[in-house]
């Protein structure tokens, strides 16, 4: 059986509805943090919009990913817990699944591609998950996860093409709209699409006319290309500093973006780094490049955002400290 394992196709999953997202919110309530919403007069003045920043970089594990991972882990039956779970991740989802698994005392296997941010890998190791290295390709990630499933019996928790994960990510929108109900636009980054899908489903269940927008790096623009083509484009080779957004858009996630008329806006890495500096400067919050794509989009597309009230999701804050100037100085 092992010899036949070469690649695991993306799971075929159904999109959650608002009932599943509300159930997820109840399920993770004792584990996930209710993250704050921050404002900045300076950034409002700069952009000409009213920005409400949902600070998921302050979530457990430093990213929104804990919501989906926690919902997946606590959805398991007691007889499934002893089997453990497996996923592939460049960092944030892997750490989230490791943390969530620890809350149930179960083993997590995390497949990590070579070249992942070292600080994220170290954080996963510190939680006690088992790390498995692979080549930095989607096929290698899938194949390694498949082998671990065969060898250990672990259950797959896909980073974004998983109904339970998408539902967990959607709980963010319930919180944001409960705290800040009068929004015109909800803006998230998009990579694999679990967040954008879950948030769109939840937001439109509560406010059907809300505009849904997603920011995507120019060097990993498969979601925008897929929406334009009306089908998944999977041959984009990622080339971006936004390591959390290099995944290919998932099939159910693309369906959700199409169904909820999500507009995907492209920003380049230079715009993203500039926006990240602005967030550090004015919000006094440390966010990673993937998070900053949303502010970069607001600045780059004033015709979309000016004069509107916008929920802006800051997705993560797990920075590679060695990539910063003091990191280089410390090693010298």
How many strand units?
A: 10
Major sheet description: 6 strands, mixed
Helix content: 40-55%
Q: What is the first-to-last residue Cα distance?
A: 49 Å
Looking at the structure, the CATH topology of the largest domain is Rossmann fold
- Rg over CA atoms, rounded to whole Å, is 19 Å
Q: Record the strand order, biggest sheet.
A: 1-2-10-7-8-9
Q: How many helical stretches?
A: 15
Structural class: alpha/beta
By CATH, the architecture of the largest domain is named 3-Layer(aba) Sandwich
Description of the structure:
This protein is α/β, with parallel strands linked by helices and 332 residues long. The protein has two domains: 18-64 and 163-323, Rossmann fold, CATH 3.40.50.1100; 66-156, 3-Layer(aba) Sandwich (Rossmann fold), CATH 3.40.50.1100. Helix content is 46%, strand content 14%. It contains 15 helices and ten strands. The protein has a six-stranded mixed beta sheet, sandwiched between helices. Helix 9 packs parallel to helix 11. It is globular. The termini are far apart. Mean pLDDT is 92; it is low at 1-8 and 325-332.
Give the secondary structure arrangement, pairings included:
Layout: H1 18-28, E1 37-38, H2 41-47, E2 50-55, H3 65-74, H4 78-81, E3 85-88, H5 92-103, E4 108-113, H6 118-127, E5 130-134, H7 138-152, E6 155-156, H8 163-179, E7 185-189, H9 194-206, E8 211-217, H10 222-229, H11 251-259, E9 263-267, H12 269-282, H13 289-300, H14 302-305, E10 309-314, H15 325-331
Parallel strand pairs: 2-10, 3-4, 3-6, 4-5, 7-8, 7-10, 8-9
Antiparallel strand pairs: 1-2
Helix pairs in contact: 1-3, 1-8, 3-5, 3-8, 5-6, 8-9, 9-11, 12-13
């Amino acid at each position: 059986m092992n010899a036949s394992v070469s690649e695991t196709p993306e799971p075929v999953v159904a999109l959650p509805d608002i009932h599943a997202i509300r159930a997820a919110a109840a399920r993770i309530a004792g584990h996930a943090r209710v993250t704050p919403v921050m404002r900045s007069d300076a950034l409002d003045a700069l952009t000409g919009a009213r920005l409400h920043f949902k600070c998921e970089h302050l979530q457990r594990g430093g990213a929104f990913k804990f919501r989906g991972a926690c919902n997946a882990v606590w959805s398991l039956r007691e007889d499934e817990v002893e089997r453990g779970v497996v996923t592939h991740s460049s960092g944030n989802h892997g750490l989230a699944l490791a943390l969530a698994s620890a809350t149930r005392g179960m083993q997590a296997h995390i497949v990590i591609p070579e070249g992942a941010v070292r600080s994220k890998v170290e954080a996963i190791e510190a939680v006690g998950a088992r790390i498995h290295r692979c080549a930095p390709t989607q096929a290698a990630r899938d194949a390694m996860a498949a082998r671990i499933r065969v060898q250990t019996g672990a259950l797959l928790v896909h980073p974004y093409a998983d109904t339970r994960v998408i539902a967990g990510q959607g709980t963010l929108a319930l919180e944001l709209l409960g705290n800040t109900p009068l929004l015109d636009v909800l803006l998230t980054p998009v990579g694999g699409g679990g967040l954008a899908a879950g948030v769109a489903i939840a937001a439109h269940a509560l406010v059907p006319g809300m505009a849904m927008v997603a920011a995507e790096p120019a060097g990993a623009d498969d979601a925008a290309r897929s929406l334009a083509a009306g089908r998944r484009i999977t041959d984009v080779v990622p080339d971006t500093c936004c390591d959390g957004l290099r995944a290919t858009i998932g099939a159910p996630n693309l369906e959700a973006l199409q169904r909820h008329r999500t507009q995907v806006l492209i920003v380049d890495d230079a715009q993203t780094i500039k926006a990240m500096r602005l967030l550090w400067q004015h919000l006094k919050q440390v966010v990673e490049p993937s998070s900053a794509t949303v502010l970069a989009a607001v600045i780059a597309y004033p015709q979309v955002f000016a004069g509107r009230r916008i929920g802006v999701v800051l997705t993560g804050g797990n920075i590679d400290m060695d990539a910063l100037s003091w990191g280089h100085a410390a090693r010298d």
